[in-house]
C-alpha cells in the first residue's frame, strides 16, 4: 500500500508533537501515578517508622506481680522506648508525658494484680497523646495495644493453666481450627476461595485496562481527523496520490501507536503505584489451578485474546473516525467520542466485578447487544479455556467491525469526509430561545 | 493540442441549493485557464470536483481522459490542488511538510530532494523553513503551500486563489513562478481568482461564471473586445450585470 508508511509517520509526528496529547495522554498518567505512588510510599514509610519507634511512659500504681510482668513486656518490646514514671498522680503523669513527647501513657491502677488473681477483670488505662491527629500517631498507639494484647494472652494462659492443669491453653482459647479449601472445576486447591477469586479478578482487570487503551485510541483517532478539518489540511490530504483506504489505515495505525505509547506510560505509572501501595504488605504464594494454568499458557488462549484486542481496536478506531468526520473541530470530535465512550466502557466496568450470567435477563440482553461486551466475554472465556464461547463472541465482534470498517471506508471514498456535518434537524432550540 | 480538462453540463446540488447548473468548459494542455465570478458563483465547487474531492450530481468531468469519479485515483496522480483556505500540519516544520508531500508524490529520494530544494526556492522562506508551520504568518504559509503545489511538477495544478493573503511583492513573485512553470514544464493550470489584474496577467483563457453557469469564455483580449471593455474588471461587471 503506497504511501502508508509516510502517512503513519506524519500521524504519529503530528500527534506526538501536540502538547495537549503529549501531556494529557503520555506524560500525565506517568507523572500522576508516580507522584501518587511516591506520596503513598513516603506516608507509608512515615507511618511504619512511627509504629517501630514509639516513646511510651508507664505509671505502675499497683507494683505487684501482674503489673510488673506488663512493665517488663513493655520494656523488652523492640519497638518501644519506655519511660517508667513513679511517685506521681495520673494527672501529673499525663502532663509529664506530654512534655516528654511521649505518644502513649499506660497507667496500671492499684489492685490490678489482686483483681485478676481473684477472678475480677483488671483494668489498664491507655492514653494516646496526640498532637496533630495523624495516622502516624495512631500507628504508634497500636504498637502499644499490641504489647498489651500479648500481655493479655499470657494472663489468659496463666489463668487456664491454674484452673485446667492438663489442658493446652491454646486449644481452650481456639478450639476450632479452620482449613479452607476450594474445588475449582473438579480440581481441589488447598487455599481459601478469596485468593483464587482475587487471582481470576486480576485477570479480569485486563479487559478494563484494554478498554482504557481503546478509549484513548478512539480519542486520538477522532482528534487526528478533527485536526485535519480545523487546520484545513483535509482537502489537500484527500487529493494526494494515495488511496483513500491508505489514508484511513494511516489514521488507524497512527492512533494505535500513540494509544500504545500512552498505555505503556499508564501501565508503568500504575505498576509503580501498585508497588508503592503494596510494598509493606506480605502475602503467601497463590496456587494456580492446573486447568487455569494450562489455558493461561495455551497458544489458543493467547491467539484468541490477541485477535479480540486487535478487532476491538480496529472497530473502535474506525467508529471514532466515522463519527469524527461529522465534527467541525477538535472540541466537537472530543464531545462525540465522549458519548461513544459510554457503550465502550460500560460493559468493562459492569463485568469487572460481576459475571454476565449473574445479571438479570434484561440487562444481559442489553449488554450482549453492545459489541464491546464481547471483548470482555471473549477474553474471559479464552482465559478459562472456554474456546467455543470465546469464538462466538469474537464472531459477533468481527461482524460489527466489518460493518463499521465498511462504513468508514465508504465515508472516505466519497465526498462525505468533506461535506458531512452534524445536523440536529429536530432541535429548534435556537429559535425557541429567541422567542419573545 | 491535447485536452487537459473536459467539463460537460456539470450540475452539483447541496440539498436544495444548486451550486452548479450545467457548467461546461474545456482546458487545453499547457495553458493557464482562469475561472472568475462573484462570490457563490460556483468557482470553488468546480475546482473541488476537478480535484476529485466532490462528486458531481450529474454531468461529466475528465482530466487527461480520466473520469474524476470512476478513475479518481488515476486523476490524483496527475494533479496538485491548492485550496483557497488551506493549512499545513501545525506541528511540522516547513521543511518536514515539504518532504512529506514530496515523498507521497515522488518515487525516489533523489527526486524528493530535488523537489524540496525547488520548493525552498519558490517559497523564499529560507531558514524559516526549519520552524514549525504554526509560527508562520498567513503570507508565509501561503508561499509554502504554493511551493508544495508546484514542486512535484504536476500535469495539472488546480489553484484556488493562489495569491490570497500575499503582499504585492510576494504575489508578483508567485505569479511569475506559475507562468515560468507552465513555460518550462508544460504544466496545465486551472485557477480561480478575484484579482482581475492577476487573471489578465496570468491566464491564456478565462471563463466568467455566475450562478453555476459559464456566461462567456475566451482569451482576455477576446472578452474585452466582445464586451467593449478596457479591462477584465469591466468585462466581469458587464457580463454578470447582463444576467
Which characteristics define this entry?
heterodimer; A: 436 residues; alpha/beta; abc type-2 transporter like fold; 2 domains; 4-stranded mixed beta sheet; two-stranded antiparallel sheet; 18 helices; B: 243 residues; Rossmann fold; 4-stranded antiparallel beta sheet; 9 helices
Give the topology, please.
The complex is a heterodimer of chains A (436) and B (243).
Chain A: H1 4-17, H2 19-52, E1 54-60, H3 65-76, E2 80-85, H4 90-100, E3 104-108, H5 112-117, E4 125-128, H6 135-163, H7 169-173, E5 182-184, E6 187-189, H8 193-230, H9 234-238, H10 244-278, H11 290-297, H12 299-324, H13 330-353, H14 361-369, H15 373-383, H16 387-413, H17 416-419, H18 429-434
Helix pairs in contact in A: 1-10, 2-6, 2-10, 3-6, 8-10, 8-12, 8-13, 8-15, 10-12, 10-16, 12-13, 12-15, 12-16, 15-16
Chain B: E1 3-14, E2 17-28, E3 32-36, H1 43-50, E4 58-63, E5 66-67, H2 72-78, E6 79-82, H3 94-105, H4 109-123, H5 138-151, E7 156-160, H6 168-185, E8 188-192, H7 196-202, E9 205-210, E10 213-218, H8 220-227, H9 232-242
Parallel strand pairs in B: 3-8, 3-9, 6-7, 7-8
Antiparallel strand pairs in B: 1-2, 1-4, 4-5, 9-10
Helix pairs in contact in B: 3-4, 3-5, 4-5, 5-6, 8-9
